[in-house]
Amino acid sequence: NAGVTQTPKFRVLKTGQSMTLLCAQDMNHEYMYWYRQDPGMGLRLIHYSVGEGTTAKGEVPDGYNVSRLKKQNFLLGLESAAPSQTSVYFCASSYSNGAYEQYFGPGTRLTVT
Amino acid sequence: EDKVVQSPLSLVVHEGDTVTLNCSYEVTNFRSLLWYKQEKKAPTFLFMLTSSGIEKKSGRLSSILDKKELSSILNITATQTGDSAIYLCAVVPPGGATNKLIFGTGTLLAVQP
Q1: pLDDT above 90 covers what percent of chain B?
Q2: Contacts 24+ apart (CB under 8 A), B93-98
Q3: pLDDT, tens digit, for every residue of A39-71?
Q4: What are phi and psi of B83, to 5 degrees?
Q5: Which residues of A touch B88 (CB under 8 A)?
Q6: Between residues B98 and B100, which one has the greater pLDDT?
Q7: Which residues of B touch A100 (CB under 8 A)?
Q8: Over chain B, what is the mean pLDDT?
């Protein structure tokens, strides 16, 4: 049981480049989330999904898009990276309504130069 | 705006000391409060608190919720170097079937030998 996995672990982008971060979970969780973590800011929710084919905006969605084509995968896309998107990105998943514990992936450290 | 505040932001203790970490929230009618430990990578779940005054305990760690004071504390007794981590507090806001969490900025604990 791998839990929640994220690829890649590290990435360096130039301003204006695009990339996709992949999150996969093997726990059959309904809900999935993307967060970013910056020093002094805690974890902030970017987008989330409550089921296959559904997505919704979180606290800081600008500059990001997401897709959930399969229940086990949640993709986070940056269409035109900016230095302000330099951060550590965490994916998480949970069971459905009422099971609040979220299980986190190991994170992706992204640097935009 | 819903807000979760943790204090102190950081602290340094010696092995064997007892520490108390604080979490206060400005979230009306929240559902539950969760504590996570974040070492080098993914946050890992410690406790979930829903009822006021009932202590949750796991080994040397314990936590309690005070809904009247809108706060929670996390106690660690006989600290060890392995307790060094960021401790995150998160609150489940009311409404919606999404299990979204609002995180505090975290407390960085360093335990020196």
Answers
A1: 71
A2: B93/B2, B93/B27, B93/B30, B93/B31, B94/B27, B94/B28, B94/B29, B94/B30, B94/B31, B97/A50, B97/A96, B97/A97, B98/A31, B98/A48, B98/A50, B98/A56, B98/A97
A3: 888 899 999 999 999 999 999 999 999 999 999
A4: -80, -10
A5: 42-43
A6: B100
A7: 31-32, 34, 48, 92, 99, 101
A8: 91
Tokens for A9, please give them.
Answer: 């672990």
Residue window 42-81, chain A: list those with CB within 8 Å of chain B: 42-45, 48, 50, 56, 58
- Segment B46-72, tens digit of pLDDT: 999 988 888 999 999 999 999 888 899
Please answer yes or no on whether B45 and A106 come within 8 Å at the CB atom.
Answer: no
Cα-Cα end-to-end distance for chain A: 36
In degrees, to the nearest 5, what angle opens at C-alpha B54 toward C-alphas A44 and B24? 35
For residue B67, give the amino acid letter. Answer: K
Q: Compare CB distances from A101 to B34, B103, B104 and report the shortest one's residue.
A: B34
CB pairs under 8 A between A and B: 59
- Chain A residue with minimal CA distance to B4? A42
